[in-house]
């Protein structure tokens, strides 16, 4: 072999050895594990080791970013040791800092240690006590906040009426909260906040005062927090952030002009000896990626997320045609993520949302978390409208037939899919905002909501805002003490005002008849609701509202409010136990293909304006013969049976059938419902189990006939919901003869009369008085509700 060939062979061997060395190094790096420590006694100029930890989480995350940028591919753990870490800005992890399935990026608390990541600023000022008993202190100029905590307890911003935890809504409300007579007592009303319910109690509104009008009323800005706008409720409202209302223990007021903080401490309490914290950050941790470059394989575990700022004035983005508006923010915000998980954390004392899963996300898991004392919603999965075909945002908006995009499903991937919220304990939420839920889904698909315990919420425990794009699984949840401050909702609540939807029923009937397949263009996958325990004493246990389509509902225990299906298609409901209540079908479409069979019901069907009864409403099991007879007179339940149902131990919540011999009915295991994690299960409350009663407290259905029309007083939540009324009041038109003067004037069956000649019409007695006026004058203008909207109609002879 000549010298040249020898040199080439040597060069090849050296190259091969170098490649092997690089491969071995890369493999060793992949198998390696790097631990970075953070402790309150640490220093950021140190190395982040167990013996020389960093002082801040920001430094730890920046070190991980440098490692990743340098090509490190092994597992990374950022380990936070015990203590409270006050953040000056949110922690952010982007796509370049991602882990891998084999080597994740983990941020966790040290084993057995309590770690708090706080969005608050600690106030270490000196307090002075004035003769009137109010303490005050000077703050840094420009410091602004809307919440304050002393030794971990939330203080109350000066308000009227005073805070009372036993009163709902708002822990106290007053009709005169913003009357000119009260406003006149305030030296400077600028900066006051008014919180009120929607006039129909469909959520809340929030306003900021920018001054006072010559007539003494407030100049208000805001009120955009509900996608079904209305006036604020005349009674359910309160005002805060007014110095003159600083009159109760634990109240505070911040004068931003002079940077002076006032605090009415309880007797014997010295704020100089308290730990005072003021939340200023909206978010604590953000995972930020995109579909093209997702952040992935991140685990956040065992950390307490506390003290974020309220965001109620920013909750203004409408969600398609549901009643909701949102603000895309949370103590933890996840955008553009894959295979990330938030597990075994505590999130509490937050001003806004706890967790917001935003736009494109896949296989994000939120599990084993305690979420409580939250100003807004607990868990939100919300996609982007650019993924929606023929999107519309307000209830009254519609898509003209010639403009309809008739391609099924989403038009982009910019939405959460195949994600999970499981085994979480969620309670005491919606303390400021009322249009919230324990778990909310909108513009999302195939979200699994499993084994959660959710209670003490102002509205629904679980909410689906639209039909896009279905495929959700809602199973093994325990949801109770719901709809505590609002109205016309359920423990589970949904809408489906998708692209086929039209708020005027006659036009929608024509569209659906002409294009029956359009109802499934958005609700392309079946959503299943099974093996849950639901309880709502102020609405329905399960409430599928306007347009909710393509559902399969089975093996649920409904403890109080019953099960409601309003307009929609392809709902199959079977094998449910409905305690002390029954089925509430409302205004169904022709050819809805709905099915209600093999359910145990304890009351007759509470149908509202039903002209079509779907494919099957039959084969159900009644506990009362009179109820079955009532429903058979409506022309249904031909094959239904009256049975004597014996449950194992209903007093303790065990509604398992003792003798499961009902054909077509499968007994269910109640014990598997709710949170399973041991640390959360021992904390979770249980619903109040009702005593089974044999009969309804029957309402009078007395009607009144006049001039070819039959009327009745609105008496039930179902009648209120069907008409979209703000309260259970008014007079419902139940029948009209074609020759009636009311038909000639434009009234229809199903209309509800609520006012005439500037006089409220609450009941038949009120209506009789106005009918006398019509007889005498031949002319009467009334206000009615039709298609859930107000209209004025002139009645004349």
UniProtKB/TrEMBL annotation:
SUPFAM superfamilies: PDZ domain-like, Pectin lyase-like. Residues 1-26 form the signal peptide. This is PDZ domain-containing protein. PROSITE patterns: PROKAR_LIPOPROTEIN. It comes from Sphingobacterium oryzagri. SMART domains: PbH1. Keywords: Signal. The keyword Signal applies. It comes from the Bacteria.
């Amino acid at each position: 072999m000549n010298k040249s060939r020898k040199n080439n062979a040597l060069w090849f061997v050296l190259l091969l050895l170098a490649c092997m060395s690089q491969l071995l190094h890369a493999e060793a790096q992949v198998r390696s594990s790097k631990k970075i420590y953070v402790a309150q006694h640490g220093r950021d100029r140190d190395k982040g080791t167990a013996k020389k930890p960093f002082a801040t989480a920001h430094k730890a995350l920046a070190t991980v970013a440098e490692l990743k940028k340098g090509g490190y591919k092994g597992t990374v753990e950022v380990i936070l040791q015990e203590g409270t870490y006050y953040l000056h800005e949110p922690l952010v992890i982007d796509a370049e800092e991602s882990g891998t399935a084999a080597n994740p990026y983990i941020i966790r608390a040290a084993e057995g240690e309590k770690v708090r990541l706080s969005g608050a600023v600690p106030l270490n000022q000196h307090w002075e006590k004035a003769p009137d008993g109010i303490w005050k202190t000077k703050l840094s100029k420009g410091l602004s906040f809307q919440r304050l905590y002393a030794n971990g307890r939330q203080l109350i911003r000066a308000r009227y009426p005073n805070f009372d935890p036993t009163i709902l809504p708002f822990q106290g409300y007053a009709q005169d909260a913003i009357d000119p007579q009260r406003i006149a007592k305030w030296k400077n009303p600028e900066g006051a906040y008014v919180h009120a319910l929607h006039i129909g109690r469909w959520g809340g509104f929030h306003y900021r005062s920018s001054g006072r009008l010559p007539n003494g009323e407030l100049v208000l800005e805001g009120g955009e927090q509900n996608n079904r706008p209305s006036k604020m409720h005349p009674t359910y409202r309160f005002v805060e952030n007014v110095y003159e209302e600083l009159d109760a223990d634990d109240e505070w007021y911040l004068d931003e002009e002079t940077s002076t903080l006032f605090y009415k401490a309880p007797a014997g309490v010295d704020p100089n000896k308290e730990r005072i914290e003021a939340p200023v950050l909206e978010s604590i941790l953000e995972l930020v990626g995109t579909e093209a470059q997702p952040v992935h394989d991140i685990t956040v575990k065992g950390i307490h997320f506390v003290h974020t700022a309220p965001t109620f004035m920013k909750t203004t983005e409408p969600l398609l045609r549901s009643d909701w508006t949102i603000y895309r923010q949370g103590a933890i915000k996840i955008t553009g993520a894959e295979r990330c998980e938030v597990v075994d954390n505590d999130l509490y004392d937050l001003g806004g949302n706890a967790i917001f899963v935003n736009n494109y996300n896949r296989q994000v898991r939120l599990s084993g978390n305690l979420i409580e004392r939250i100003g807004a919603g607990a868990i939100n999965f919300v996609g982007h409208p650019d993924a929606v075909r023929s999107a519309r945002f307000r209830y009254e908006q519609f898509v003209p037939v010639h403009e309809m995009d008739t391609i099924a499903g989403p038009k982009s991937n910019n939405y959460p899919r195949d994600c999970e919220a499981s085994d979480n304990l969620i309670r005491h939420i919606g303390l400021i905002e009322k249009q919230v839920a324990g778990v909310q889904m909108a513009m999302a698909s195939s979200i699994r909501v499993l084994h959660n315990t959710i209670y003490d919420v102002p509205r629904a425990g679980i909410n689906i805002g639209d039909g896009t794009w279905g495929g959700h699984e809602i199973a093994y949840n325990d949801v109770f003490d719901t709809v505590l401050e609002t109205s016309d909702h359920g423990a589970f609540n949904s809408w489906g005002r998708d692209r086929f939807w039209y708020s005027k029923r006659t036009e929608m009937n024509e569209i659906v008849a002409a294009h029956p397949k359009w109802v499934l263009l958005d609700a392309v996958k079946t959503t299943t609701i099974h093996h849950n325990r639901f309880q709502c004493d102020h609405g329905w246990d399960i409430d599928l509202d306007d347009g909710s389509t393509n559902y399969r509902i089975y093996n649920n225990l409904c403890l109080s409010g019953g099960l409601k299906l309003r307009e929609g298609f392809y709902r199959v409901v079977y094998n449910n136990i409905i305690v002390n209540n029954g089925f509430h079908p409302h205004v169904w479409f022709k050819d809805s293909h709905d099915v209600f069979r093999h359910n145990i019901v304890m009351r007759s069907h509470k149908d509202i304006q039903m002209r079509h009864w779907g494919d099957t409403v039959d084969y159900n099991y009644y506990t009362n013969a009179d109820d079955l007879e009532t429903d058979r007179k409506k022309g249904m339940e031909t094959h239904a049976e009256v049975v004597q149902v014996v449950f194992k131990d209903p007093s303790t919540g065990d509604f398992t059938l003792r003798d499961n011999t009902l054909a077509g009915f499968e007994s269910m295991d109640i014990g598997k419902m709710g949170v399973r994690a041991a640390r959360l299960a021992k904390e979770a409350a249980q619903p109040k189990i009702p005593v089974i009663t044999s009969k309804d407290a029957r309402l009078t259905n007395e009607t009144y006939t006049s001039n070819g029309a039959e009327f009745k007083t609105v008496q039930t939540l179902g009648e209120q919901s069907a008409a979209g009324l703000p309260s259970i009041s008014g007079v419902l038109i139940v029948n009209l003869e074609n020759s009636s003067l009311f038909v000639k004037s434009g009234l229809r069956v199903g209309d509800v009369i609520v006012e005439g000649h500037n006089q409220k019409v609450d009941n038949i007695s009120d209506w009789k008085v106005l009918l006398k006026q019509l007889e005498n004058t031949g002319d009467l203008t009334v206000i009615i509700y039709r298609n859930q909207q107000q209209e004025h109609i002139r009645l004349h002879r």
